[in-house]
Specification:
8-stranded antiparallel barrel; 2 helices; alpha+beta
C-alpha cells in the first residue's frame, strides 16, 4: 500500500497544473517630436550647452513648453504585440541627462504602453558649419534602459535610443526616439521541472520496491 501511495504521488506531480504567466512585450516603436535644450536654470540654450531636455507639448509648429511634452508614433515593428498604433500621440517627461536622477516612472506613455526609465548614457557633439555662412549643427544622442509595461503583459526589460539636433540658431530641434523590448533568454518551461519531479517520485518508488 505504501508503494501505491508513493506511485500516486509521482503521477500527481506529473499532472500538476503549470502556472500560467502573462507574455512579455515584444517588438519596437519609433516616434518623434519637438524639443529644446535647457541649462540648469531652465533657460533655452544651444544644445551644445544644454544639460536637460525640455520636450514641446506640440508635435509641429512653434514649441510650447511645460511639464513634459508630446510625440507621434511613426512606426511599429512587424509582429509587435505592443498596444500601440502608428499615429498615436503619447506623452514624455522632461529630464536632465547631464545629472540623471532615475528611475523615472512613466517616462513615456502611449496607447496602452508605458516605459520606466532606469539609466542612460548621453553624448553631445557639434558639427562645424560646412558651406560659408551656415550655422553649426548640435547633436544629442542618448541610449538607455528601463522597463516596458502594458496591461495583460509581464513587465519587460526595454531599451531606447534618442537622437536630437538643432542648427545652432533655431534653438528648437526635432528628435527621433526608438524604444523596444530587450532580447531575453528563453526560459526552460515550468512543465519540465514538474515532469522531473514526477519522474523522481516514481524512481523512489521503484527503489523502495526493489
Amino acid at each position: 500500500m505504501q508503494i501505491l501511495k508513493q506511485a500516486v504521488l509521482g503521477l500527481a506531480l506529473l499532472a500538476a497544473p503549470v502556472a500560467v504567466h502573462a507574455a512579455p512585450l515584444t517588438g519596437s516603436i519609433d516616434f518623434g517630436g519637438l524639443f529644446q535644450g535647457v541649462d540648469d536654470s531652465g533657460t533655452n540654450v544651444r544644445l551644445a550647452d544644454a544639460v536637460a531636455v525640455d520636450f514641446c507639448a506640440n508635435v509641429v509648429g512653434n514649441c510650447v513648453t511645460g511639464a513634459g511634452g508630446a510625440f507621434t508614433v511613426d512606426a511599429v515593428s512587424t509582429g509587435s504585440n505592443m498596444p500601440v498604433s502608428v499615429g498615436d500621440v503619447g506623452t514624455i517627461q522632461d529630464f536632465n541627462f547631464a545629472a540623471f536622477a532615475g528611475p523615472i516612472a512613466n517616462f513615456f506613455t502611449v496607447g496602452g504602453l508605458s516605459f520606466d526609465l532606469s539609466a542612460i548614457t548621453a553624448t553631445q557633439f557639434t558639427v562645424p558649419p560646412l558651406p560659408p555662412g551656415t550655422s553649426p549643427t548640435d547633436y544629442l544622442l542618448i541610449s538607455g534602459i528601463g522597463t516596458l509595461r502594458a496591461s495583460g503583459f509581464d513587465p519587460t526589460p526595454g531599451t531606447f535610443t534618442f537622437s536630437g539636433q538643432t542648427d545652432g540658431v533655431n534653438l528648437t530641434g526635432t528628435f527621433t526616439f526608438s524604444g523596444g523590448a530587450a532580447a531575453l533568454p528563453v526560459p526552460a518551461p515550468a512543465g519540465l521541472a514538474l515532469l522531473g519531479a514526477g519522474l523522481l517520485g516514481l524512481g523512489l518508488v521503484r527503489r523502495k520496491a526493489a
